[in-house]
Design brief:
The chain is of the alpha+beta class. It has a 3-stranded antiparallel β-sheet with strand order 1-3-2, with no helix packed on it.
Length: about 60
């Protein structure tokens, strides 16, 4: 088995930090939709408004 070491430029952590308004029902719905889309894109929730994604290129 051949071991290939990852180059520091081929791996990356992406973080998404946000603070969305949630005063009205419409704003809460849009904030929830935004969080669901992050999860669909492969992000994992660290805290309620902090999401992370690990990416490997190549």
């Amino acid at each position: 088995m051949r071991y290939e070491r990852f180059c520091a430029y081929r791996i990356m952590w992406l973080f998404c930090l946000f603070d969305l308004p949630t005063n009205t029902k419409k704003q809460r719905k849009r904030a929830s939709e935004f969080r669901k889309k992050l999860i669909e894109d492969g992000f994992d929730m660290m805290q309620f408004s902090v999401y992370k994604h690990f990416e490997v290129y190549g």
